[in-house]
Write a structure and sequence with these properties.
Layout lengths: L8 H100 L4 E9 L2 E8 L2 H13 L3 E13 L4 E11 L10
Antiparallel strand pairs: 1-2, 2-4, 3-4
């Protein structure tokens, strides 16, 4: 006898196999999606960490640029202050220089000699005076030459003139003013 199975067993089995394969495919796709999602999250996290690090470094660079600007401004102000101090030193030297020149001149003038005129222009000095003897003029010139404030002392003219009582010697001397190097104050 022939038996006919009316139950669709093969079709049911085929459906079960297809369902199993679809389930495996779905699980594989789910695993692949989870792996891609995890990989994406990991890479995205690294990118955000790097962006955060870059923004921190840029903020640090901006802070350092600001500090560099402040240092440059400080150096500029320091240089301006140095220039002002140099000007003040020059003014102070210029203030006391003529006084020291005239003081040194007064210390160098011997007895029986008088200075009639004294003029200074750009460091060149011309002075004229009267003396009772030529030796007094020579002594005066030696004292000026030994001074730290006068150099290149030269006698231009010596003339003898007579007044009622004496023979007088008119003279004219030229020289250069020289400021000695600053001496450190004594402690």
């Amino acid at each position: 006898m022939i038996r006919i199975n009316l139950l669709p067993v093969k079709a049911a089995r085929k459906k079960e196999i297809v369902k199993g394969q679809l389930a495996i495919l779905g699980v594989a796709l789910l695993i692949a999606l989870l792996a891609c999602g995890g990989l994406y999250a990991m890479v995205s996290s690294k990118v955000s960490d790097e962006k955060e690090l870059i923004s921190k470094k840029e903020a640090e660079i901006a802070s350092l640029k600001k500090k560099i600007g402040e240092v440059a401004e400080f150096k500029k102000r320091q240089q301006e202050l140095r220039e002002k101090l140099e000007i003040l030193d020059k003014l102070s030297d210029g203030k006391t220089g003529p006084v020291r020149l005239l003081d040194e001149l007064s210390l160098s003038i011997p007895e029986k000699m008088w200075i009639i005129s004294y003029s200074e222009s750009n460091g060149s000095i011309v002075m004229s005076g009267i003396s009772l003897t030529e030796e007094t003029v020579a002594q005066f010139m030696r004292k000026l030459e030994s001074s730290d404030y006068y150099q290149n002392v030269e006698l231009r003219v010596v003339e003898q003139t007579r007044n009622k009582e004496n023979v007088l010697h008119k003279f004219e001397i030229s020289c250069r003013a020289q400021m000695p190097a600053k001496q450190s104050p004594a402690k």
